[in-house]
Write a structure and sequence with these properties.
It contains six helices and nine strands. By secondary structure, it is of the alpha+beta class. The strands form three sheets. It has a four-stranded antiparallel sheet, with no helix packed on it.
């Protein structure tokens, strides 16, 4: 860059002062400053200005400015977070709308099925197997299948005996209790025990699966009613 002109040199004085020029440019500008008094004076003025600014030191930002910056940053972050939430909510609504239509029928069917199932499972334990309001398609009560031959109470038993029996899934009596009758009669329990051992039932069913159930039997010295 031999014979650098003043206009070119003055445009590069500030980078030259900051050391932001190449080695060749630095040599050319230095040679021009030695030869040109006007450019040399302008360069000296730039140097004095730089020294004065450096002497001022770094000025601390006022508290109001720092607070304003923090508020602006907070608002910006809040705005971005709100925008992300709105985008996610919109995507969720779109996905839900696409899913709800085909899933509605399945959900309703599941609710009806589980409602019927809970209704059966919550039946009171002491409910008679002959009660008519139990849905037969879900639950069927035990049914008397066979009694030992010649079953009858002794003739000295003055009244009928009503017994509630617990029939297991195998159709056999697991337990029983006397609902009415001469429970204190000395021969009643042995006779009932003998009858219950040999009595068989068609077990109750729940959804077609054999299960335990209860049935009420009425005994007298004449006949047996189930």
């Amino acid at each position: 860059m031999r014979g650098m002109k003043c206009q070119r040199a003055r445009s590069m004085l500030s980078p030259y002062l900051d050391g932001a020029v190449t080695g060749v440019e630095m040599q050319s500008i230095a040679g021009h400053l030695r030869a040109c008094r006007e450019c040399s004076l302008e360069y000296a003025q730039l140097q004095r200005t730089q020294h004065m600014l450096a002497g001022l030191g770094r000025k601390k930002a006022p508290p109001e400015l720092a607070l304003q910056i923090r508020v602006a940053l907070s608002q910006q972050a809040s705005s971005q977070a709100k925008w992300r939430l709105e985008v996610l909510a919109m995507r969720f609504r779109d996905a839900l709308n696409a899913f709800m239509l085909p899933a509605t029928a399945g959900v309703i069917s599941a609710v009806i099925f589980f409602g019927m199932l809970i209704g059966v499972l919550m039946l009171p334990e002491g409910l008679s197997a002959a009660q008519e309001d139990v849905p037969t398609m879900l639950y069927t009560p035990p049914q008397l299948q066979a009694l030992p031959a010649g079953v009858a109470l002794d003739e000295d038993t003055p009244e009928a005996v009503v017994v509630e029996t617990l029939v297991g899934a195998n159709g056999r009596v697991q337990d029983y209790r006397i609902l009415s009758g001469p429970a204190e009669h000395p021969n009643l329990r042995p006779q009932l025990n003998n009858i219950m051992i040999f009595t068989t039932f068609r077990p109750a069913t729940s959804f077609g699966v054999p299960t335990s159930g209860r049935v009420v039997l009425s005994f007298s010295n004449i006949n047996v009613k189930g």
